[in-house]
Amino acid sequence: MEMTIQEAANILGVLRQDDVSTIKQKFRKMIGQYHPDAVGSDEPEHIKKAQLINEAYSILRENLMQGKEIPASTPVWKAKVLENAFTVRTIYMILWEDHKKEYIEVTRGRYEWDPDLEEFDCLLKSLNQAVLELLEKTEHQNGIFQDYEYDLITQRFPYQVQLFHALAGQYILPVSCLKKLASPIRIDEEGRHIYKFQAFLGTKGDSKIFRVMLKLKSGDLLYADSLKDNRLMLSDEKGGSLGHLSLAEDSLYYVIIPILQKHLAQVKFVVSAMEVKRNIRPYVVRVNIDLFLRMEKMEGLEIDSDQNIAIEGVLNSYDSYLKTL
């Protein structure tokens, strides 16, 4: 069956305003990702994808030469739609050209983050962009359209941070993501899923935390002290502060910490190894930790109205600040 012009537009991610030159650039970028000569592979999926890209470009070019209108792509993103999310966000994908990363827009909507579909790096860009759109909308409502008129980059920052974490809390459903990012190491007799993650603590110099860390040994249990600013603070059995925990993968901060905040799991921290470097100044210590997560609930939580109220509150605070300028 012959490819339709709409299918061709979808394959190349064509936007309604794209001209011949732009479509050609998109074609070159995509073909560079899949053409067997470019990727050094003759795998069937690469060959098939390259054929589809070539066919799509040929159809679009022919229609443009005939003066026909090219429809915008209408990609269907398969992630779950979160109807109650505060705002839409842009979905991105990454294209590499000459070892340089470039983000291209795929679609927009209130889509849950699905680790199987969307790279975490693309999610971060999406959330940051959504935050900027919300802040700029508030600025425009106050008659502010150019950053250089005011020091908004600096003044925006605390509002950006609050909005970013709030939107992340809406679009990253932690239990759903946990199921896709990790597999349980076992299921106990009560049917509870138990996960294991790699984490670590570290510091340098001769600080109080450094001295507390030096006393640790493999097998020691550590304890969650507090959850603050998306960070998990730990202490030893005597209550000595050990600083914030670092996780092996950045995406896990947005999964594990919300799960603990919502009391969906029990957690245990066990020292697995100690690394102390005294041959450099300042001294460095690293405490490797096994983090065990026992899920008490595996049902995902939906967005509640309080989250939207919190986002609205941040925007209202920013609006009030702008009115003082």
TrEMBL record:
PROSITE patterns: DNAJ_2 (PS50076). It holds the Pfam family DnaJ. Keywords: DNA replication. Residues 7-65 form the J domain. InterPro entries: DnaJ_domain, J_dom_sf. One of its GO terms (biological process) is DNA replication. This is J domain-containing protein. It comes from Anaerocolumna chitinilytica.
